[in-house]
Amino acid sequence: MTTRVLICDDSNVARKQMARSLPQDWDVEISFANDGSQALTAIQEGLGDILFLDLNMPVMDGYETLENIVKLDLPTMTIVVSGDIQPEAHARVKKLGAVEFIKKPIDPESLANILVNFGLYRPGGTQTIKQDTSAPSSTPSTAILTRPDDGEPIDYRDCMQEISNVAMGQAADLLARLLNVFVKLPIPNVNVLEVSELEMALSLAEQGDTYSAVCQGFIGHGISGEALIIFSDSSFSDMANLLNYKGELDRTVELELIMEVASILSGACIKGIAEQLDIKFSQGHPMVLGQHVKVGELIRANSNRWKETLAIEITYEIENHNITCDLLLLFTEDSLEKLYKQLSFLMD
Amino acid sequence: MTEPSIEIKEFHWLMDMLQTIDIGLVVVDRNYQVRVWNSFMESHSGQPSSKVKDHNLFDCFEELPEDWLKHKANTVFTLKCHSFMTWEQRPYLFRFKNYRPITGTEEFMYQNITISPLASLDGEISHIAIIIYDVTDIAANRKALESANAELAHLIRTDRLTSLYNRGHWEECLAREFGRYQRYDTTCSVVMFDIDHFKQVNDTYGHQAGDGVIRAVAEVTRKSLRKTDIAGRYGGEEFGIILGNTEAKAAEIFCERLRKEIEALNVNYEGQEIKFTVSLGISEAKTSTQNYTEWLEQADKALYVSKENGRNKTSMYDID
Questions:
Q1: Is the ipTM of this complex over 0.85?
Q2: Is A17 exposed, middle or buried (0-12, 13-18, 19+ CB in 10 A)?
Q3: Distance (Å, rounded) from C-alpha A100 to C-alpha A93?
Q4: What ranges do the domains of chain B cover?
Q5: Cα(B232)–Cα(B54) distance, rounded to whole angstroms?
């Protein structure tokens, strides 16, 4: 019997990767959804015996989707596929009814094992037809089912977003373990920007607020850039509590806090991206860019030397604490060609 | 005897390189037993590897910030990530002498520290490497730049002759004080005063003497200030004082005391005694005052009243 598999992820790249990770000899019919609400409609239309569900998505995220599946009593078996590898995220989705949690990037072998364990798939079966279908049922449908088309050019932005998503999750997991908290993960914001637009593009930058920041350079394989960690100054008191710093919160203590969190976040994120691109970056020593200054003063980028940058912005928030920090990964203009080349290897 | 394999030879010169590289390398295990202590560490600490190796790091160096380092090391052990510390957080981990004891300006070596996880064959983090970079020159340059900037910031605000604030900075202070008054409805007064018949002092005794008189007035003014008062040299022989949390009545007491002290002054210039007086004007900020310039003009008008009424006097600006 053909199993109907629904893959729900906001990233086209991620949907493709998921579809490709499924056992080749598994008799399935695959449909796709861009967000939770599309997935719900598709399940109602009988397209999702099994749902592979991402967590961080616009419109309706994975948590909300799981809640709705329970509420509407929809007949599907949900396996969460996410870059958010915090144990807490794992526990939460299990509680919401997901049967399993698979971390990105997906390892096809462990995926196959999971499917075997649930009795969904038997390796070496006789049926070796893998069907992709984009055709929704004949009844009018609100679900926009997209199908990855192998002929289309690679969407580097989407690709970079998915890679950042995974790297961000790895970094967040470390931060969560360091602070013993749950880190709320956003959708990474990937843009090619003029250097002059950088400040405006920062979602953190609220007028009047002051920030402290650390930057760390990285280089390797013809790709180079900097990771900036920007803290809103109002985050320090909660951060000091979480890291058990007693006593007065002076500039030195703040420096300790920001260096500790920044070296973990930027280090893990840079490493995560390098691993996925299958390259290695050397990382410089982190530098304090400024304490208690306006965002504009932090990013006095050398606009004479380069005009464009690939900017990845990730805003980390910590649940139940007043802590917000922006991780900004900036790739230099001359890195882009090499970067795109690595990405296309990845997509092949 | 068989020849040592190529790998062992390679290992030998690799080790040699780690030993002689001009960066501090320390490897410790989970119990902080030292496993590697390279020659940089030997030379700067004065402790040979033989004395440190296989000993507890904190036993060998009691002055190390044990809690701090253990906290950082624990993060590296459990999260398997690098940890970085800059000299700005903590100038040094090991107190070493400056590498340039003669021409260097700093007494000790500033250090950046990286702690890296070292995995054993089973992938577990059994050891960490503490890497010590000498960043004394960077730190010294940064500190020199900071102190030059601070000096510059001081110079740009200060009047050279009197060391009081100059007009520009004093007016900025006045604008800020007026802003505070408008926001928080505080009480504050501004005083303008100048030296009576200053031109005569200059004409009779010369400009050098005139400068001496201005300096003497500034000195008396400075001594009469309370902590929050702000005095500046506004122009040639004209001065201004911002009196925070002070109503006009109290400002008058302050001014009268200052006036009398200046009246009693004797400035000695090349054997000649110079005596002089000042005239003062006060204005307390009122809700009807539009901006700080208007506030200042009011004090100036009060000062003119003092001049018209025979000088060596204090007058208050009266709205009515």
A1: no
A2: buried
A3: 8
A4: 6-143, 159-316
A5: 65
Q: Which of B237, B238, B252, B284 is catalytic?
A: B237
Kindly list the residues from chain B whose CB atom is less than 8 angstroms away from the CB atom of residue A85.
none
Cβ within 8 Å, pair B89-A287: no
CB A117 within 8 A of CB A28: no
| Per-residue pLDDT in tens (0 to 9) along chain B, 320 residues | 555 566 888 888 888 888 889 999 999 999 999 999 999 999 999 999 999 999 999 999 999 999 999 989 998 998 888 889 999 889 999 999 998 888 888 889 999 999 999 988 888 899 999 999 999 999 999 889 989 989 998 999 999 999 999 999 999 999 999 999 998 888 999 999 999 999 999 999 999 999 999 999 999 999 999 988 999 999 999 999 999 999 999 999 999 999 999 999 999 888 889 999 999 999 999 988 899 999 999 999 999 999 999 999 999 998 65
Give A254→chain B minimum CA distance, Å: 9
**Closest Cβ–Cβ partner in A177, A263, A287 for B83:** A263
Q: Are A21 and A106 in contact (CB under 8 A)?
A: yes
- What residue spans define the domains of chain A? 3-132, 156-347
In our burial notation (b when 16+ CB lie closer than 10 A, e otherwise), range B16-48 reads: eeeeeeeebbbbbeeebbbebbbbbbbebbebe
A156-347 belongs to CATH 2.120.10.80: no
Cα three-residue angle B228-B229-B234, rounded to 5 degrees? 145
Do the beta carbons of residue A9 and residue A54 sit within 8 Å?
yes
Residue A115 · residue A14 · CB < 8 Å: no
Class of A3-132 in CATH: alpha beta
User: Is the CB of residue A197 less than 8 Å from the CB of residue A205?
Assistant: no
Give Cα separations from B22 to A153, A300, B88 (angstroms): 50, 34, 22
Select the CATH number that applies to the domain covering B6-143 from these four: 3.40.50.300, 3.30.70.380, 3.30.450.20, 1.20.1440.20.
Answer: 3.30.450.20
> In angstroms, how far is the first alpha carbon of chain B from the final one?
113
Spatial contact of B285 and B183, defined as CB atoms under 8 Å apart: no
Q: In the annotation, is B237 catalytic?
A: yes
Looking at CATH, the fold of the domain delimited by B159-316 is given as Alpha-Beta Plaits (3.30.70)
Q: Which residues of A touch B84 (CB under 8 A)?
A: 216, 259, 263, 267, 285-286
Task: Record the pTM.
Answer: 0.70
Q: Do the Cβ atoms of B83 and A260 come within 8 Å? A: yes
Task: Give the residue from A110, A120, A104 showing the smallest Cα distance to A162.
Answer: A104
* A96 DSSP assignment: T
Contact criterion met (CB below 8 Å) for B108 and B97: yes
